[in-house]
Amino acid sequence: MINQIIVGKRIKHGRRRRGLSQGELADMLTVTPQAVSKWEKGEALPDFVTISKMADIFGVDLNYFSNAKTGDLNETDDFEEESEEKETNQESEYEDKFDKRSYQFTFNTWKNSDFSHLDGVGSRFSLANITNCNFMHSGLNNSHFNVNSLLGNNFAHSDLSESVFNTSIINDNDFTASSFIRSKFNACNMRNNFFNKADFSEARISTCRLVDNEFKELILEKTEFSFSYLRSATFADATINNTTFSNVRFRNASFINCEFFQTMFKNVRLEDVDFIDCVVDDLTYAFLKNCGARLIDVTIKK
C-alpha cells in the first residue's frame, strides 16, 4: 500500500520544481485545487491515471511517488520533521534521474534555450511552446508534438524519425538535413520552414497547411501527402519516388530539377504548378498529364 504522506510530499516537490501553483497543476489534471491540496497534505490519494499524468508533467517515472512503502517509515509527526539533509538528498536523487532519463518538455514554455546534441531522450513535447531554441544534431526520434507552437527553432541535422506532429503550429524553423523517416504530420500549420536535404521517406502528411516552405534536395520515398494545402512551396533538386499526392491543393508551387519515379497525383489539379527541368517515368507522366500539368519542361526517362 502506498503511503499517502510520501506521495503528497513527492507531489509538492514535483510541482514546485516545475514552478507550478496548485491551481495550475489542477488545471492540467482537470481536478480542483482543493484536490491537489489534499494530496499534498496526505489527506487523500490520487488515482493511478492521475499519478501517471503527473509523472509526465514532472518528468519522472512512477517510482518517484513511492520511494518508501507503508511501514518503512513511522506514519507519525516525526515523518514531517525528517532532516533537511535527507530531503535534500532525495531531491537531488530525483533531479539526477530526471536529467539522465528523459527531457520532458510537456506543458512548458521554452525560449532561447540550447538543447543541442540531445540523444535518445524519447521526448514528449505536448502542449509546449518552444521558441528560438537550438536542437541541432539531436536524437529526437519517437517524439510527440501535440498541440505545440514551434517558432524559430534550429533542428538542423536532427533525427525526428517516427515522430508525431499533431495540431501544431510550425513556423520559421530550420530542419536542414533532418530525418522525418516514418513520421506523421496531422492538422499542422507549417509556414516558412527550411526542409532542405531532409528525408521524408515513408512519412505521412495529412490535412496540413504548408505555406512558403523550402524543400531543396529533399528525399521523398514512399511518402504520402493527403488532403493538404501547399502554397508557394519550392521543391528543387529533389528525389521523389513511389510518392503519392492525394487530394492536395497546390497554389504557386514549383518543382525544379526534380526526378520522379512511380509517383501518383490523385484528385489534384496541377495547372498552377511549375515543372521545370524535371525527369519523370511513364507512370508519373501519365498522372501529371491527367491532372493538367504543363509538361513543356518535363522529360520522360526511358
Q: What descriptive keywords fit this protein?
A:
eight-stranded parallel β-sheet; about 25% helix; elongated; about 300 residues; alpha/beta; 7 helices; 434 Repressor (Amino-terminal Domain); 24 strands; 2 domains; Pectate Lyase C-like
Side-by-side strand order of the widest sheet? 1-2-4-6-8-10-14-18
Class based on secondary structure composition and strand pairing = alpha/beta
Low-confidence stretches: 68-102
Roughly how many Å apart are the termini?
72 Å
CATH architecture of the largest domain: 3 Solenoid
Q: Mean of residue pLDDT?
A: 83
CATH class of the largest domain: Mainly Beta
Q: How many strand elements?
A: 24
Q: Main β-sheet: number of strands, strand sense, barrel status?
A: 8 strands, parallel
Helical content band: 10-25%
Gyration radius, rounded = 25 Å
> What global shape is seen?
elongated
Number of domains: 2
Q: What name is given to the CATH topology of the largest domain?
A: Pectate Lyase C-like
Strand coverage percent: 15-25%
| Number of DSSP helical runs | 7
Describe the model.
With 302 residues, the protein is an alpha/beta fold. It has two domains: 4-101, lambda repressor-like DNA-binding domains (434 Repressor (Amino-terminal Domain)); 109-300, Pectate Lyase C-like. It is built from seven helices and 24 strands. Strands 1-2-4-6-8-10-14-18 form an eight-stranded parallel beta sheet, with no helix packed on it. The protein has a seven-stranded parallel beta sheet with strand order 3-5-7-9-13-17-21. The longest helix is centred in the first third of the chain and has 18 residues, at 84-101. The N and C termini lie far apart (72 Å).
